[in-house]
Amino acid sequence: MKKVDKILLSVITFVTLFGLLMVYDASSVRAFIDFQGDKYHFLRDQGMWVLLGFVSLVVFSYFDYHKLHFLALPLLLAAIISLILVFLPGIGAGAKGAYRWIDLYFFTFQPAEMVKLSLAIYLAAWFSNKEKGRLLSFTLLVGAVLLLILLEPDLGTASIILFEAIIIYFLSGGKVKSFIIAFPVLALLWFALIKVEPYRASRLTNFLNVNNSFEGIDYHLKQILIALGSGGVWGLGIGNSRQKYGYLPESMTDTIFPIIAEEIGFIGASIVILLFIIIIWRGFYIAMNAKDKFGRLLGAGIISFIGIQIVINLGASTLLFPLTGVPLPFISYGGSALIVDMASIGILLNISKQMKKK
Known about the structure:
There is one protein chain. The chain is mainly α. It has one domain (about 5-355). Helices cover about 65% and strands about 5% of the residues. It has twelve helices and three strands. The protein has helices spanning about 5-35, 40-60, 70-85, 110-125, 135-150, 155-170, 175-195, 200-210, 220-230, 255-290, 295-315, 335-355; strands at about 90-95, 100-105, 110. The protein has a three-stranded antiparallel β-sheet with strand order 1-2-3, covered by helices on one side. The longest helix has about 35 residues, at about 255-290.
């Protein structure tokens, strides 16, 4: 077997360790207040998840990805069952009106993260073989998964999974006219889902008013703009963020990028974005050069959900998109997403070992 893709492995390692630094930086003030002076609380949690993430990366980089073809259905069923379990009292755990986690007592797990990877594996295995008239079956399967995620509710994750599924279907030979017909329907449905939830409608309204008046937008967006503007070209320096002192909500999770931009400036933030572009480029390069159709579809599915999540988070963190509550891969605080993403990168590295060409 050939060596792994060193560029992807190097960039992922750097970005993940940089993320560990930024999680500590962005969370130290909150940890000091919430945990009686223990400013390292969130750092210890994230450090454990980073370690488990690298373990999963190594394991899957040595695990022959072809074996995942036979595990596709059990993995998908396990993911769907876990989505249902979040709604059961005593098992599911909620926060801020959302039920997205399973409480395992010693840690909580977010099943929607598992769905991203298991659905990519299942669709890649399914679409590796030619089959006529599978659009209806595909629509019903993806629709059922999305419905469970929307009930949590989690529109951001549902959007990522929808685009991931569409990309895999298209790359497997799906007809373009199917997407042309479906696009306006999906756009209307997406808009309706925003309007029926007051907090989503409020986010969209504030996003549309950003350019009209600074005073007219909500607190969260103002603090993002202040963070981005305060960083200037070179930044305030690592550890010198002002917004982390309770001003910017979700500063270590969904909106950690404005803290990064505040501390390392436009130049540093641009380098971080460039590193993410390299990750996406290497992912698609590996996928397109996989030696079989299953590897191509699986690799494309993995880098699609990672890449789409990166774009959505960075777009929301720079006010190009409405706020969605989607974390930044490999950097934001959180265990479920990081471990699944690192395992996914491990699969990509295993595919790179067996590519047709280097």
